[in-house]
User: Which sequence fits this backbone?
């Protein structure tokens, strides 16, 4: 028999865990972690179509796609990179051409490619810090989701066994998941800062954090609050059960 206080804590913790999982899943699957705003004149340049074509079909090169992101209102995520460029032009010049968004995904091998001290220049040597920050920002959210899924399976088993003891493990897994989510955001921000230090942004180009990064950031405290509720429920129930057992023995 579970006390109402513990049952309420478990329900609230489950809801927080579900919200955190949804937020992190949306953040991982979208490309609005970081976005650039380039001057309107860049979109009217004659080479805008060439940049977009090379961005979509060209060889993978960090400097090439970063320069295109800078110049064409690019957005960057964990798995996607996108640019905005004028659509198909007609024989007459449109006063306000329609902007088309084109996205390209990072393949799994590309996620593990090394970064160089000077982007695009293999002769400058590998930048280990940027390389491992990139790999961590790709792996940590997957580890976080794996922890939440595992904790959910443990929670289902606990319900079937009618025991609150496994909730302690659920709380620990949620705590680790929250730390992984927080680590993802930190690795991404540190990696972008290092990229901007070794890259030259064109004049008038501004960068800002995107809304999906904030979703990933929000998921971390939600997971930690869920962990705190699970740990409290497991610990308090165990202490209460121990006291009741001692009382009955006495």
Assistant:
């Amino acid at each position: 028999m579970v006390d109402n206080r513990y049952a309420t804590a478990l329900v609230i913790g489950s809801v927080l865990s579900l919200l955190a999982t949804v937020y992190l899943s949306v953040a991982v699957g979208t490309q609005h972690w970081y976005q650039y705003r380039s001057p309107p004149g860049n979109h009217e340049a004659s080479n805008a179509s060439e940049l977009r074509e090379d961005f979509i079909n060209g060889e993978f090169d960090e400097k090439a796609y970063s320069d295109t992101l800078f110049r064409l209102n690019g957005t960057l995520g964990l798995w996607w990179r996108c640019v905005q460029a004028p659509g198909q032009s007609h024989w007459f010049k449109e006063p306000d051409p329609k902007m088309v968004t084109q996205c390209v995904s990072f393949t799994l091998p590309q996620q593990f490619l090394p970064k160089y001290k000077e982007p695009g220049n293999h002769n400058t040597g590998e930048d280990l810090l940027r390389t491992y920050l990139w790999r961590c920002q790709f792996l940590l959210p997957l580890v976080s989701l794996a922890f939440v899924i595992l904790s959910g399976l443990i929670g289902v088993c606990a319900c079937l066994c009618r025991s609150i003891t496994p909730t302690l493990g659920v709380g620990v897994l949620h705590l680790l998941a929250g730390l992984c989510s927080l680590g993802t955001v930190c690795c991404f921000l540190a990696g972008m800062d290092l990229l901007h230090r070794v890259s030259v942004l064109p004049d008038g180009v501004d960068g800002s954090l995107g809304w999906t990064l904030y979703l990933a950031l929000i998921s971390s405290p939600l997971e930690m609050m869920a962990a705190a509720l699970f740990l409290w429920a497991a610990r308090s129930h165990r202490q209460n059960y121990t006291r009741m057992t001692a009382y009955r023995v006495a």
